[in-house]
Amino acid sequence: MDAFDADVLIYAAVPGHPLGQRVAALFRSVAPARVAGIGSVLLLPEVLSRPLRDGATDEVRVLAGLLARLDLRPVDRATAELATALSTRYRLKAADAAHLATAVGMAADRFITNNQRDFPATITEIHVTYPADLADTADGDTSTIEGKLAMSRTFGGVLAASARR
Questions:
Q1: Rounded to 5°, angle at Cα 85 from 80 and 87
Q2: Among 29, 65, 95, 140, which residue is least crowded by beta carbons within 10 Å?
Q3: Ordered domains of the chain (ranges, CATH)
């Protein structure tokens, strides 16, 4: 299973973003009612705060739909201790260390990020994958706001179903 960093989810919400299209394709490749990956619960404020503050309702809808497809894990003591060790080893900021620790602690297959400065491919605990290395897909048109909204309706249905549980 894939684990996600905040930056790639933000790219996936931007109409026509070439790296975002590759990330969005990972979500489309999984049945709509299924979990598409994992992440730290810290993704919520990291990806939603700015568009909520700016009143960007379409972007919030797409991002919330993406987040609804992730198994968002809490930062418990074990994750925090692993984050501390990873932060020390790789000189990471606290939030970045928590995202990486969540991925490693949940035994994700790979950690999807575009932050090559903080997450070099030399990290040994998990396979770090950059969006440019993901398959280029023309499947589904997310290059327009209409395409993004169609995608959000797909993800939004999952969000609404999750809210009813």
A1: 85
A2: 29
A3: 2-157 (3.40.50)
